[in-house]
Amino acid sequence: MSMIRCEKCNKYFGSLHVLQDVDLTVEQGEVVCVIGPSGAGKSTLLRSLNQLEPLYSGKILIDDELLLHCEKGVIVESASRRDRKRLLLEMGMVFQSFNLFPHKTALDNVMLAQQIVRGTNTETAREIAMNLLVKVGLEEKADSYPLRLSGGQQQRVAIARALAMQPRMMLFDEPTSALDPELVGDVLRVMKDLAHGGMTMLVVTHEMGFAREVASRVIFMADGCIAEDNTPAELFDHPQNPRTQQFLTSIL
Q1: Among 152, 158, 174, 195, which residue's CB has the most CB atoms within a 10 Å radius?
Q2: What is the C-alpha separation between 168 and 191, in angstroms, rounded?
């Protein structure tokens, strides 16, 4: 089953064509890593999938259901308001910045969205939140405020917060790029645990070791296009596209 599918997706920022006829499918249980140079359109692709950025044209389907079809900046077909909310809730999102509420504890940050969006009662939300803080190795930090947490700890709270919404798939937008190098490992371990547990994941990352080890497929983007889509072994060891070859040579 296709958990995420986009067809001929295009996006402009003014005259800049940042997504160019992008076709992408992520199957249930896959871990797909998206790599490429800055400005390639990687983050814009994720933000378009969960509707943080409007498309100019193309189709987005979630769980094989149409979320949106746009042509020339106009929505020509979309899910109902109720179905749109349901489909978007199937995607959890973790950003580069942690976006935690500074006046809320780690526990409260994980509880809040459950209560507001899903209407979960306080007792249940607290139980779910604590279980997730245990999952990400931060149970002892439940009562700590974000300013008392390292960047890696804040990002793990953000992952727990996304998981608390019980998504069927997770989108990660360069989740380690804002972290000091010594803090990256703890976040990647949590992501590896999710992948090994069968979570469907679409990950924009500069962590090539993670992509090689964990991904089902690796996608290389450049200039708003998907230039190459292959298994980690084939893409890293035998890249076919000259642009992929140039990129890998420059970073590896």
Answers
A1: 158
A2: 15
pLDDT at 142: 97
Distance separating alpha carbons of residues 38 and 41, to the nearest angstrom: 8
Question: Euclidean distance between the first and final Cα of the chain, in Å?
Answer: 34
Spatial distance between the Cα atoms of 41 and 6, rounded to a whole number of angstroms = 14
pLDDT digits (tens, 9 = 90+) for 24-35: 999 999 999 999
Longest dimension (CA), the chain: 55
Helices 106-117 & 151-164 angle (0-180, nearest 10): 20
The tokens 């679409």 sit on which residue?
202
Task: Give the strand pairing for 57-62 and 2-13.
Answer: antiparallel
Q: What value does the mean pLDDT of the chain take? A: 95
**What φ, ψ does residue 167 adopt, rounded to 5°?**
-75, 160
> Which of 196, 25, 217, 183 is closest to 98 using CA atoms?
183
As a whole number of angstroms, the distance between CA 206 and CA 217 comes to: 15
Which pair of tokens denotes residue 139? 């149970």
- State the SS3 of 209-234: HHHHHHCCEEEEEECCEEEEEECHHH
Cα distance between residue 178 and residue 106, in whole Å: 19
Give tens-digit pLDDT for 49-65. 999 999 999 999 999 99
What size, in residues, is the chain?
252
Task: State the amino acid at position 176 in one-letter form.
Answer: T
110 closest CA partner among 202, 120, 226: 120
Q: 125, 108 in Cβ contact below 8 A?
A: no
